[in-house]
Design goal:
By secondary structure, the protein is α/β, with parallel strands linked by helices. It contains 5 helices and 13 strands. The strands form 3 sheets. Strands 4-1-5-6-13-12-11-8-9 form a 9-stranded mixed beta sheet, with helices on both faces. Helix 2 crosses helix 3.
Length: 236
């Protein structure tokens, strides 16, 4: 029997509490782990390690997880008052992505992860969407907003999701200038770019939404398994 693909997932860098403890932590919502397991992969959590990417030798694919904003200095902008960044993640995740691309590992970027992908290819971000299109992409603290996206015909994303998809969003930033060589492949009704991919044979896909979150149509804890299943399939 072939071993299950090992799927590396970047972790959050946050202050956290458990039991009697309150300290800095490398952590990840369990929903990512559940989705990778449900897709037939083995989750491998990747804590921020500066620019040391040697851990990629132990995995078969990479998920860049959601979380706080990218430092706008990474794309030549001053910070908006609503921007909250975690520089500890930036250097590591940009280095991870560069090395994953060099190794031709399958890559899935989720929310912040899609933004990492866009900035890594020279793109920029709108730092606070309510200034531009309203608040429906982040309706309330800790509340995901249901939305629908239209997916570009012939894209890798369409091959996985079809021409439309129901999604769960929680983001206040989005693509401004698209990164060089990337293709925008899904859009919300207000025109916000909700997915990008790198054309060609390699699996490099970013989605602005949270496919690991339940939308009420799948079994509890399953999220939308299709993107994770596609990633695991490419890693086999």
């Amino acid at each position: 029997m072939r071993p299950k693909p090992r799927i590396g997932i970047s972790t959050y860098v946050e202050q956290a509490k458990w039991g009697v403890w309150g300290t800095a932590a490398a952590l990840l919502p369990m929903s990512y782990v559940d989705c990778v397991v449900a897709a037939g992969g083995v989750p491998v959590l990747l804590p921020s390690m500066g620019e040391d990417t040697s851990v990629l030798s132990a995995v078969d694919a990479l998920v860049l997880a959601g979380g706080a904003d990218i430092d706008p200095a990474c794309y030549g902008r001053a910070a908006h008052e609503k921007t909250i960044s975690r520089p500890e993640r930036d250097a590591f995740e940009f280095a991870l992505l560069r090395e994953a691309l060099r190794r031709r590992l399958p890559v899935l970027g989720v929310c912040r992860g899609m933004q990492v992908l866009n900035v890594a290819f020279g793109g920029t971000l709108t730092q606070h969407l309510p200034d531009v299109v309203g608040t429906e992409h982040q309706p309330a603290p800790a509340t995901y907003g249901p939305n629908r996206v239209t997916v570009a015909e012939g894209s890798r994303a369409a091959g996985i999701l079809g021409s439309e998809a129901k999604i769960q969003c929680y983001h206040h930033q989005a693509v401004d200038r698209l990164g060089d060589g990337l293709a925008a492949v899904a859009w919300a009704p207000d025109g916000v770019v909700e997915a990008v991919e790198l054309p060609g044979e390699d699996f490099v896909l970013g989605v602005q939404w949270h496919p690991e979150q339940d939308d009420g149509t799948a079994p509890a804890g399953a999220g939308d398994p299709r993107l994770f299943a596609a990633l695991v399939g490419e890693a086999r």
